[in-house]
Design goal:
Helix content: 25-40%
Strand content: 35-45%
Order of helices and strands: EHHEEEEEEHE
CATH architecture: 2-Layer Sandwich
Largest sheet: 8 strands, antiparallel
CATH topology: Alpha-D-Glucose-1,6-Bisphosphate, Chain A, domain 4
Radius of gyration: 15 Å
Shape: globular
Number of domains: 1
Length: 163
C-alpha cells in the first residue's frame, strides 16, 4: 500500500525578537522542556558550527494514543531565517522553519511535507486524514504556546493550513 502524503502549514506569531525565537528552535534537545508533545531528542551526529548535517532522533507523543520516532538530518541553515531538515523513520519528508520579524513580532512558518511509513497509518489515512491533521495542529499549537511561555510572551496567532 502506498504511503499517504501530508502537506501541513503552521504559523505562529510571537512578540519576540527573531534572534530569541531562533535560539529556541535551533536547540531541539531543549524542546522537551517547553513543548509538551516532544518526549525526547537525542543527538546522533553533530553538525558543523551552524548545525548543518546534524542528525537527531525525535520522539513525539500526540493528542491521539500513539507516539512516533524519526530521525531528522539538518539540510539547510540560514540563521536566523531558515532551518530545514529531512525526516526518516516513523514519517519521511521535509520540515522547514521560516522566520521573519517586523515591528517587534516574529512570524514563524513551519511547512511539514511528509509521508506515512507505518502500515497502520497508511491503512487509516484515507479515512483518518482529517484526524491526523487535527492531531498535527494540536501538537503544533502546544509548541507555539510553549515557546511563548519559554520566551515570557504570548502567542498572538497560530494557524493550520492543510494543502
Amino acid at each position: 500500500m502506498a504511503a499517504a502524503e501530508f502537506a501541513l502549514l503552521t504559523v505562529w506569531r510571537l512578540p519576540a525578537s527573531i534572534d530569541a525565537v531562533w535560539k529556541q528552535l535551533e536547540a531541539p534537545e531543549e524542546w522537551p522542556e517547553w513543548w509538551r508533545y516532544v518526549k525526547r531528542v537525542v543527538e546522533l551526529k553533530r553538525g558543523d558550527a551552524s548545525g548543518l548535517g546534524a542528525i537527531r532522533r525525535f520522539t513525539w507523543s500526540s493528542r491521539l494514543p500513539y507516539s512516533l520516532s524519526f530521525d531528522v538530518r539538518v539540510t539547510k541553515v540560514e540563521k536566523p531565517h531558515l532551518l530545514e531538515g529531512r525526516a526518516q523513520g516513523g514519517l519521511d519528508g521535509t520540515g522547514t522553519w521560516r522566520l521573519d520579524e517586523a515591528g517587534g513580532v516574529t512570524t514563524v512558518r513551519y511547512d511539514w511535507r511528509v509521508r506515512t511509513t507505518k502500515a497502520w497509518m497508511r491503512l487509516a489515512a484515507p479515512l483518518a486524514r482529517p484526524v491526523f491533521a487535527w492531531n498535527h495542529h494540536g501538537v503544533m499549537q502546544a509548541g507555539g504556546e510553549g515557546l511563548a511561555r519559554r520566551l515570557g510572551t504570548r502567542l498572538l496567532e497560530d494557524g493550520p493550513a492543510t494543502r
